[in-house]
């Protein structure tokens, strides 16, 4: 019994392979920029439609493709010649009227409120890089119209109108829209009146519509002065005196400024024209009528 447990088990024997073992080599790592071995880079092939399936032969298909390419090229050329020129022309005019400085704004406001002793009123011209004569920007010419002051005065007018109605316990959000609409209608009527008069009098001037909009927008400065006076609750006499002064200053400013549009000076215009004595008389009458119409426009604007 003891001899049975003292025996050791026989050693294990592994089978001997009859053929040599084969271990495949790992693929080599490709270098940068080279495709891996055994793979091919995909090359897209141009898609050529089968025109024969549509009932067209090769010559007809080629003619149609050439015709389409010619139409696309013609349209692209038209857009390049016309649309960018118009866009650049409009942007250049807007940049011209917003080319102002702090000193220009302060001096312009002084002229708008006290135009009686300002000299001279003629605008300055300069020669562009292309050799054409053009008006100098407002930064370099105090008599040049700008759009910065009219735009700021337009926004200020709307805010002061809302403030006045709020102090009178009449404010409503619709007041902002009503004030803006009233101001835009007045500007449009003034512009149509000037353009219509220039058309009837055959006025040929180099001034743009933006110049007339700027001249018409300067009336907001006098309107703001009148509304600010009304905020301190003065007597009716003082209020009417301030309104009368604002109207007179704006009318005198327009008389002298629009003179370069209606009666262009040969020494300060880009398109010299001659005006007969009868035409000159009618145009001066039109200038005075435009100046008198300011009392109507400003009277509408101060009624908040």
Structural account:
The protein is mainly alpha-helical and 304 residues long. It contains eleven helices and two strands. Strands 1-2 form a two-stranded antiparallel sheet. Helix 5 (174-200) crosses helix 6 (209-217). The longest helix is centred in the N-terminal third of the chain and has 40 residues, at 58-97. The model is unreliable at 83-88 (pLDDT under 50).
Largest sheet: 2 strands, antiparallel
Shape: extended
The assigned structural class equals mainly alpha
Order of the strands making up the biggest sheet:
1-2
Number of strands: 2
Give unreliable regions as ranges: 83-88
Q: What is the average of the pLDDT values?
A: 80
Instruction: Return Rg in Å.
Output: 41 Å
Distance between the termini: 127 Å
**What share of the residues lie within helices?**
55-70%
SS summary, helix count: 11
Approximately how much beta-strand content do the residues carry? under 5%
């Amino acid at each position: 019994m003891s001899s049975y447990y003292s025996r050791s088990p026989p050693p294990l024997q592994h089978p001997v392979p009859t053929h040599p073992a084969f271990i495949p080599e790992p693929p080599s790592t490709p270098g940068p920029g080279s495709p891996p071995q055994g793979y091919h880079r995909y090359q897209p092939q141009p898609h050529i439609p089968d025109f024969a399936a549509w009932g067209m032969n090769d010559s007809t298909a080629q003619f149609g493709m050439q015709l389409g390419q010619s139409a696309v090229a013609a349209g692209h050329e038209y857009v390049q010649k016309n649309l960018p020129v118009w866009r650049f022309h409009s942007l250049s005019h807007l940049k011209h009227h917003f080319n102002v400085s702090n000193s220009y704004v302060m001096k312009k406001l002084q002229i708008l409120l006290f135009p009686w002793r300002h000299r001279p009123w003629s605008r300055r011209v300069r020669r562009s890089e292309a050799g054409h004569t053009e008006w100098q920007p407002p930064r370099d010419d105090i008599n040049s119209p700008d759009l910065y002051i009219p735009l700021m005065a337009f926004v200020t007018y709307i805010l002061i109108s809302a403030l006045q109605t709020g102090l009178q316990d009449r404010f409503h959000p619709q007041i902002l829209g009503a004030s803006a609409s009233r101001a835009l209608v007045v500007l449009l009527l003034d512009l149509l009146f000037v353009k219509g008069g220039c058309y009837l009098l055959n006025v040929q001037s180099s001034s743009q519509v933006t110049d007339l909009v700027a001249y018409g927008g300067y009336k907001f400065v006098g309107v703001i002065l009148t509304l600010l006076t009304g905020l301190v609750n003065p007597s009716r006499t003082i209020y009417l005196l301030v309104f009368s002064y604002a109207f007179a200053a704006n009318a005198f400013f327009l008389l002298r400024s629009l003179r370069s549009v209606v009666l262009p000076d040969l020494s300060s215009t880009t398109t010299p024209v001659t005006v007969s004595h009868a035409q000159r008389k009618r145009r001066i009458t039109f200038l005075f009528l435009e100046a008198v119409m300011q009392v109507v426009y400003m009277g509408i604007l101060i009624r908040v």
